[in-house]
Specification:
2 copies of one chain form a homodimer.
Chain A: H1 17-28, E1 56-57, H2 60-65, H3 72-79, E2 89-91, H4 96-109, E3 111-116, E4 136-141, E5 148-152, E6 157-161, H5 166-174, E7 178-179, H6 192-198, E8 215-222, E9 225-228, H7 242-245, E10 254-261, E11 263-264, E12 268-276, H8 279-290, E13 298-302, H9 304-309, E14 318-326, H10 332-344, E15 353-356, H11 367-388, E16 390-396, H12 404-423, E17 426-436, E18 439-449, H13 455-472, H14 488-494, H15 497-510
Parallel strand pairs in A: 2-4, 3-4
Antiparallel strand pairs in A: 1-2, 5-6, 6-10, 7-11, 8-9, 8-10, 12-14, 12-15, 13-14, 16-18, 17-18
Helix pairs in contact in A: 1-11, 3-11, 8-10, 12-13
């Protein structure tokens, strides 16, 4: 099935129009639907070099499909037919030897090398751009490297190739009765390598939340050779090499494999939704649970606007969605204690607690799965918003519990004011995607009426207002969307200057010709 | 009270002779006690530069106290009076301005700069050595930087100066009802900065075990300026800068402060000791608990020899010491499930489970505290072993669960054979200090009869046999003792070569004159 060139997912699955229309028209009144323009793809600047012909193409549709990621701006550009950022060729390496050939050719031809997994970047991380020394760009699509190569079910680790997409990975691990349980919202169209390169956040709200904690060892191909870290559960031998590769966003090398920590599928589950009249008390309850040592798998607090937008509550209450899961034993005592903590902060649990201890029951029917289906639908809804003429996007951060109340107040106010200024009106909502003992990861959604043809300028002003406010209030520019090019200027404000110099020094050591992903994470010119 | 120049702790507390004698004579028969030789300290190679006089000294006793760490070899050298590695001067900076002055003077005078916290390194990490360009060495003792500067009890983080030793830190945090709960065996005489610089392992056997996970942000002074990371609970903005500072062992800069994750003292506890006839079944039980998601605070498996040596069991059984703790709620359900898992693997619990839910009860009396007191006694016993003529040391690693059985068999056999060859006879024991879902951190102890005056040569042969075996069997050279100089050759075998180049590139960027801790972690000549 063909991918939707400008939007999310398969062409056939992309129409979430009715659902988005209902949501958007509740705020903005009747909206008109626009259709996508035909794609305009520039001619390639070079022919496919002989050494790459066996596994590369300069076909226009393939190049267009690798022209950019899936941010709001990317989709608007694609919707309007603008695929001017398409690479000159796309390589589909069959193994590391092909990858090395790409790097050698790129060095000889002075090509920028753009690693590409599922292409779901929302920060400009996979869009080809040339550095000052480049004459063209080759995108390296890793989709042929998609095998689970080895499973150690005693240590519960699996060696996996980086190009595998989420559903394929889970299918392969499922054959061993195992799961990675990493479900970012991009799950269907993002790859293991992409998760590692961007330090993706996933399924679990607490403890082993980030892909970092699920990674035992990595293998990275750089222009100078291979970096392969040791397969041990932990070590104290100098700074952790994994942590330099994780988050390197394709600027230091191409991740080809990793040993990932896997686990059996959970069979015991417990869920509850706790409603709060007062948002600050809901935050306090969530903090108490985050600091309790109970480690819920799900601990997502939706503010009243977010609960309303998602159809979870229409009575002005904030809702804390709690979930525990285990492959080992009933989670009843954990759920009981977490709900008791929430109730002690004024929460009520109108629909009570649900406990599933029956290992034989089908997975399809439970609350976690229906939540996940709705969660994975988000990117499709954003496509429909573009067709409807609505500026719709999300941004996210993390801050301390002490900083959160002021950050929440200022960010929502600043973005609401910017929406009024730029779009006439709009709505801002917030939920926590992850919680830590020292603070939450708030995730904001905003909607405003688009000026047809002027969406990108509108978005830039909204994004700038939001991002400036995040940094002003002590938040990070990104908890799990990564830096790419979009977040570069704020990243450079929050990154210690000498750490920037350190990364550039590593870049010079591993990628001395500056081939890799120029302008992503670091300056194009090292 | 004066510190013991060659051994552990205070002079008055250093005599653990009777206890060590009883343990050692059980293996080796009657032993004679030797006394320490008077210290021989070389004259300094330079006078204290004027810019440092207000906070530095070239006093011989102070220089001798900073001549080396507390490894077995260090203590033997000190016991024999050899303080030839003493620095030329010792600075006690009162703040970062003094630190900057030290770095400036060191650059001008071509001095090696040796950061010194508690001085408990067992890998040669605090011993002054000169690089090829150095004319002398200044040790920077951070003990005056020992304040808890700020406490955020909402986010449960505290800003702490790096020079504070364990007990002082806990006393200061205790005034706020908080604790870091990081208790390495060196707790009494190691500093926060040392824990951070070496990625120390501490109290918790699972989840947030390593100081890495307890660190929110760090502040590092380098010759090129300050690196200060952002105070957020997590971020996805590029590789994590904290993780480059953690484990840098004084080679990249001097850690002066950190925001540490703290918590209330636990009031609910549960403990049990589970005995196993068969060691492999005990390992399987421990693995089941490590993979269960129960996250015990203590999960230490002692093999039969270790249990015997520590007086825990004399009947040839292996013992799994389990402990749960919480400041929030009773840990009964957790302990019940963990013990049930252990029993399902053939364990028995002859003394039953202990559950303390009484918040009012004195902390002093519980099993955790008596275990801790005995644990903290270890370094004193090692002093006594030296006086008794016993080679006594420990080494540690981490490996996957799948690798462990062969690693355990080979390492114990190789070290036992080496003890027979080098010492005539000896004993090797093993326990797990930490456990992860993908593998344990085994910790080995060995004892052999010393050849008076030849201990260092004996130790070198034993260490080499053990370390080679660890790497051959898939283990790391260190889970929490760090690299220093002692582990350098094995570290370079396990470290990806290009990661070594990356670290050297960072060293050149942050410490271009190569002032800092030459030869520790990295080559002296960058």
């Amino acid at each position: 099935m063909a991918r939707n060139l400008w939007g999310w997912g398969e062409v056939e699955a992309a129409d979430a129009l009715d659902d988005s229309r209902a949501r958007a028209e509740a705020f903005f009144g009747p909206l008109e639907v626009e259709d996508a323009a035909p794609p305009r793809v520039p001619a390639p600047r070079l022919e496919v070099p002989a050494a790459l012909q066996a596994f590369s193409t300069a076909d226009a549709a393939t190049r267009a499909a690798h022209a950019m990621g899936k941010s709001y701006v990317d989709r608007v550009r694609g919707f309007r037919g603008d695929f001017s950022s398409a690479p000159d060729l796309v390589a589909f390496p069959r193994g590391e030897a092909d990858l090395v050939a790409v790097l050698e050719v790129a060095d000889a031809y002075r090509l920028a090398v753009i690693p590409f997994g599922g292409g779901s970047s929302v920060v400009g991380g996979v869009e080809p751009r040339l550095g000052p020394r480049h004459r063209g760009a080759v995108t390296v699509d890793l989709s042929r490297l998609r095998e689970v190569l080895e499973v150690d079910d005693v240590s519960r680790v699996a060696r996996v190739q980086a190009g595998v997409l989420g559903p394929d990975l889970e299918r392969q691990l499922g054959a061993h009765g195992l799961t990675l349980r990493h479900f970012p919202q991009s799950f269907e169209y993002s790859s293991l390598g992409g998760w590692l390169a961007t330090r993706a956040g996933g399924h679990f709200a607490t403890v082993y939340t980030r892909i970092d904690e699920l990674t035992q060892a990595v293998r990275l191909v750089t222009p100078r050779g291979v970096v392969e870290t040791k397969t041990v559960p932990a070590h104290g031998a100098g700074p952790d090499a994994n942590r330099l590769v994780l988050g390197s966003e394709g600027a230091l090398g191409l991740i080809t494999e990793a040993w990932m920590r896997v686990r059996p599928r959970p069979v015991f589950r417990g869920n509850a939704s706790v409603h709060f009249e007062d948002f600050q008390r809901a935050v306090d309850a969530t903090r108490a649970i985050a600091q309790s040592g109970l480690f819920p798998a799900n601990c997502r607090l939706l503010d009243a606007q977010e609960a309303f937008l998602n159809g979870v509550a229409a009575d002005g209450t904030s809702v804390l969605v709690l979930g525990f899961e285990s492959a080992d034993a009933s989670v009843g005592p954990w759920l009981d204690r977490a709900v008791a903590l929430a109730e002690a902060h004024g929460g009520t649990c109108p629909r009570g607690k649900t406990l599933k201890d029956d290992a034989g029951k089908a997975r399809g029917g439970d609350a976690g799965d229906s939540w996940r289906a709705s969660f994975l639908r988000g990117p499709y809804l954003q496509d429909a918003m573009i067709r409807l003429g609505v500026v719709a996007d999300t941004f996210e951060t993390a801050c301390t519990w002490r900083a959160f109340p002021a950050l929440y107040a200022e960010v929502t106010q600043v973005v609401r004011e910017a929406l009024e200024r730029v779009c006439g009106s709009g709505v801002v909502t917030c939920r926590f995607t992850h919680v830590y003992p020292d603070g939450p990861a708030p995730y904001f959604t905003f909607l405003g009426k688009a000026r047809r043809g002027g969406e990108v300028e509108q978005w830039i002003e909204l994004k700038r207002a939001a991002s400036d406010a995040l940094l002003r209030c002590g938040g990070t520019i990104t908890h799990h969307h990564a830096v790419g090019r979009v977040h570069r200027s704020w990243y450079e404000r929050e990154r210690p200057a000498l750490f920037g110099e350190a990364l550039k020094a590593v870049k010079r050591a591993w990628d001395p010709s500056g081939l890799l992903n120029p302008g992503v994470l670091l300056d194009a010119e090292p």
